[in-house]
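re: ur question from yesterday

yeah so i grabbed the chain u mentioned. its 170 aa long if i counted rite. heres the sequnce exactly as i have it in my notes:
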Amino acid sequence: MTLQTVPTDTVDADLFRQLLRRHAAAVVVITAPGEPATGFTATSFTSVSLDPPLVSFCLAETASAWPAVEAADTVAVHVLGQEQEHVARTFSTRGIDRLAEHGAWRPGPDGVPLLDGVLARLVCRVVERVRAGDHTIVLATPVAGEHGLGEAEAPLVYHSGRYVALRHGE
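ran it thru and got these structure tokens back, copy pasting raw so excuse formatting
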């Protein structure tokens, strides 16, 4: 058996971004209660475990939404449909009240904002936060979920630096 050594150097930030642009990811908006309640657009959402059910997402600790997410016991994950690029853009815009700008939401369990008309929604209880570089990985257990809430049948996807829609049936 031959031991492989791991190089101590890493790819630079520009190459890292270019490489990850080749990875397609579903677009979600994650909301958190607080004063003020907030939300942000993410492509880092993923399932982690079926037993117990766990999901994760990552957020930079410098993000404007971080204080609310850091304090939240409950968050909501909203899977956006292919016609909701405007929602993704609203929740990724800096310096605005994103929920007020979006408008179509209501308070859910523990005051977490629930967006209307999304492809699917999970209400999750935060179980752990793990620091990872300049981000924190948030692990959460879904406690409620709904799908078929909007007209879209396909998710909004982010690839190669832009939002794209999958063609239905592919």
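noticed a couple things. The chain has four helices and twelve strands. also Residues 55 and 84 are 22 Å apart (CA to CA).
anyway ttyl
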